[in-house]
Structure formats: structure tokens, C-alpha cells
Specification:
heterodimer; A: mainly alpha; B: mainly alpha; two-stranded antiparallel ribbon; 14 helices; 2 strands; globular
Amino acid sequence: MIDWALGDAGKIALLTLTSMVPIVLASVGEIIGERAGVVNIGLEGIMLLSAWTGIVAAIYTGSVAAGYAVGALTGGLLGLAHGVLAARLKGDQIVAGVGLNLVAAGSTVVGTVVLWGNFAQSPTISGQPGVVVSGVRISPMVPLSILAAVAAWWLLNRTVTGLRIRAVGDDPRSALALGVNVEGVQIAASTMAGVMAGLAGAYLSVDYQGSFVRLMTAGRGFIALANVAFSGWNPLLAVAGSFIFGFFDALAIYIKIAAGLTAESYLVQTLPYIATIAAVALVARRGRAPRWLGRPFRRE
Amino acid sequence: MSLRGIAESSAAVAAGLAFAGIVLLASGVDPVSSIVVLATSFTYYPDIFMVKASIYMLTGLAFSIPLRAGFFNIGAEGQLYAGALASLAASLYTGNPLAGLAAGAALGSLAGLVPGVLRVRAGVNEVVTTIMVNWIVYWSGLYLVVAVLADPVYPHLTREVPESARIPWVMGVPGILAASTAISLAAHAFLYHTAPGLRFRVMGSNVEAARVRGSRIGAVRVASMAVAGGLAGLAGALLLQGHSYRIDSLLSGLRNYGFEGIGAALIGRNHPLGIAGASLVLAGLSTGSERIQITHGIPPELAEVVVGVIIVVLAAPEALRTAYSRLSGGRGS
């Protein structure tokens, strides 16, 4: 049996690869947004809403790809709305995100009850692509999400667009003086962050679980936000960070399966959250945040 | 609260209800009759209405007080769970109502203190840590409910708060409403009628100036988080000892008071008496949402959607001001 050959460590490593995907996608997108100065703590809500719309599309079309497309579209629209609120209306970005999370938590439950007549979950879909290793299916999203991180790093550090994004987030006044459309760049970056969070949400429902489950994002949007700071706003380091956060997620799943459904398995579930606080507390002051992060920029 | 503040909050509530109308229409439900049910049926359940209002007053303050010091406490949810769990344990073991309330406030305060200290000492974003603490308390709470506090007869529920530790109702009014009202008045008196309250408000409106004057900003901020956690924890204790007496194995009776309290704080413009008024509005919506399930088959989570939209609208006051100035022919500011 390959299971035995691989051993526990190998199995947890494989589970980590599958559980880190949403963190990679959401944090890489959020890095682009935050480098342009827009912080979106509504990532959690975007992921949850996209997980829901994604599974609806996948169920009605029978296509996993359609699920991803609708998830990305949902995320993109919400990211666009957040960008307009932040850049054009000079709104409070944190407060807006709090509201979005609440809207998502409530409306996905309403939608689940209306469509499927229960509070807890959607029907399950099957036929997700991937390679099965030792009983763990590795989705194509695993390599694709890492590729997206590399692309985001290249965009931010090796292109003129990336220079503009970073200039807007660090020094919007100078960027404006050089003729950069500050608000336009912020809205575009926020939309991109939304698309990536949408893909992360669709991965959870359409690909990873095969169904939508009430509040299934379970704080992953906030773990991604933590990972953004942990990585020092660097998409490549964000992959490494996601591996750490994914590891504790996978470890909790593994222990839960190994130990069975006991009351203690509830305590094991706290692991990813404790690990997140510990990890961020250890490196918090190392990374340098974009100087204009979360602050409304007013032309005078 | 200024007249403009009241107008903006009313517009936000109207926008929230309008959005709910869209959701209802998309769900194939008559939006007009269901919104009427949502907005008016708190009269069917006056007890629940008064309990909810009491709790929102405190979770609203729990968001508002750190906000004045520049911190976003979105952890009132977990702080309230922690308070309810501690209050139940203390009530069961001592049978004393004050021990229950004190334990609730203390554990809630600790759940607020940790993110406060981590922010001030290590620079960790409190938005992330308060949410992480919410989840840690949630899962630990499920463990405690199932493994430690469970009722041997009904294993999906905890044991009941003993009679001796309950907070009484007087002539149909819950004692906890009196407690919350007194705390709101005390918060108002502190902020607007004492010297330290004035210093705290001034610090919140201009952190740089306060720093120049040598105020110990870090200590004040940590204290604001500890007080906020204590209030949310107390809210959990009051909810348990004054109304629900038990916790279920999904914590569903405790859910969303913390998050919706953020709505109370924003609708009430961060003013203790405004928050008390806003709590009545939210309690009305939330109570109405329990009846809309019976009349229209729509789950009570609809109230969350309404509150969420209200929060988003209040995040962008300039959008409201622009709309207002267009409506009034460009004379508004």
C-alpha cells in the first residue's frame, strides 16, 4: 500500500497542498490590492459568496469550470464595488469589509434555504479533475495557484503596471504628479483582489469540498489577510506562508480523522487560528506595509 | 447625535431594507408584505425584543469604545461567547448571580485584552487577531458545551443556570434591560461629563496631538479593548443568566450579537445613547426576522443581510452626502 509507504508525514503534506490553495489565491490577490493601498477585510465574505454562487453554477451547468468562472465573476464585482467605495467615495475600508462579511454570511444562508430547503448545505457535485496520490486528490488549482503567485510577483516587481500599483500605495501624491490615475489603479487592483478571492471561494465549494456548507470559509479570508502581513506583501513569500497555515488546517483534519469524532476534536480545530496569531505575532514588525494602506486619498 | 447623523442613519436603514427587498424578490417572496412583517413583528415577541435590545447596547459599546481609540474590535462575537461560557460555569459552581456576571466580564475582558496587547506590543493587526480569537473561543466553546457543561438528560444542551443565579424579570421587563440601560447611561456620563472621558474623546479625534501632549496612548488603547471585551463578556453573561439559561451545542443562541453590535455602534454614531436607540431598531429587525420564517419561509439570517448593508452604506458617508446635495439642488455640503 502506497499509504503506508508514504506515512503520516507524507499524507499531511498532501493534505497541506490541497488546503493551502484558497489561502494562496486570496492572499496573492490581496497583496496586489494592498500594494495599491486598498485593504479589503471583506475577503472572507467575498470567498463565502463566491463559494455559494460557484456551486450554484456548477450544479446547474454540471461544469466545474463554470463554477470557477461564476465565482471569479462574483468576486470581481464585489472587489470592484469595494474599490469604488474606497477610491472614489473615500469610504472607510475596514467598516465596509465588516458589512460585506455580514451580508455574505446572511445571504448565503437565505439562498441555501431558498434553493435547497435546508440551512446547512447544498447538494454535492462530483467529477472534479485532478491527480489522486495516496487517496488525496490534487486539484490542478494547486500548481495554478502557485503559478498565480509567481505571476503576481513578476507583475508587481518587473512591470510598469506593478511600479504604478506600488507607487499608488506608497505615495499617491507623487504618483498623481507623474500622471498616474490613482483612483483607477486602486479600483483595478481591488477588482483583481476580488477575482482572486472569488477563485479561492469557488475552489472551496466546487473543487475541495464538492458542496457549499454554511460558513464554510471558516475564517480563511482573515487567515489570508494575516498571511499578507506575514509575507511582507511579497507574493512568493505568501506561498510559503500559505504552506504553514495550510499545514495546521491539514493537521487538524488529519487528527480529526485519525481520532474519530470526539469532543476533543473540537479543540483540535482551534489549531489553525492559534498558529495564525503566533505566526503573525512573531514576524509582525519585520515587513513594511504600503505607506498609504487603508487611507483614503484626496486630490487637493 | 446631530440631525445629519440621524438622517444618514435613517437613510442607511432604508437602504438595508430596500436591499432585503431585492433578496426577497429574488427568492420568489412578495417583498412588500415580508418587509412589513420584518419591520413590525417585534410586537409579537416583546420579551425577545427587550432581551435583544439589551444585548446590542453592550456589544455596540464594545465596538464603539475601542474605535474612539483607533482600534477595530470585531471580536465582540467571541468575547460574548467567552462571557456566556464563563458565566454558566461560575453560576453552576457557585449559584451566585454576581459570580456569574463577574466571571463573564472577566473572561470577555481577557479575550479583548489579548488582541489589544498584541497590537500595541507586537504590532499585530487587531482585525485579524480578534477574528482568530472568535474562532478559538467558538471551537473551545463547543468542546466545553459537549464535554464539560452538558446536561446528562439533553446532551445537545448544557445544564441550566440555577434559579439562585438568574437575573429576575420585573413586571414583564427583563432585569438585564435595566442593567444595559444603566451601563449606557454610565458610558455617556463618563464620556461627556468627566475629565478623563473628555481626554479619551480628544485622544480619539487626534492621536498625534495626544502623543505630543504625552498621553500614554498604548495603555489607553489596551484598556479600551479590555473594557470592550468586558462589556461583551457581560452581555453574554446577562443573556445567559437573564434569558436563555442554557447554551446549545452549536452556540446558536449566542450567534451574531457581536457582529450586529457593530451595526448598532455605527447607526448610533458611536454615541452611547445613540447606540441604545440603534439597539432598539436592530432588536426590532432581528425579532421580526424570526417571524418572517413562519409567515414567508425566509430564514432569520435575512436580518444579518440588512445590518450588513446598513454598515456598508455607513462606511461611505460621502456617498450619502453627494446624493443628498444632488436631491437638494446642490445646496447640501
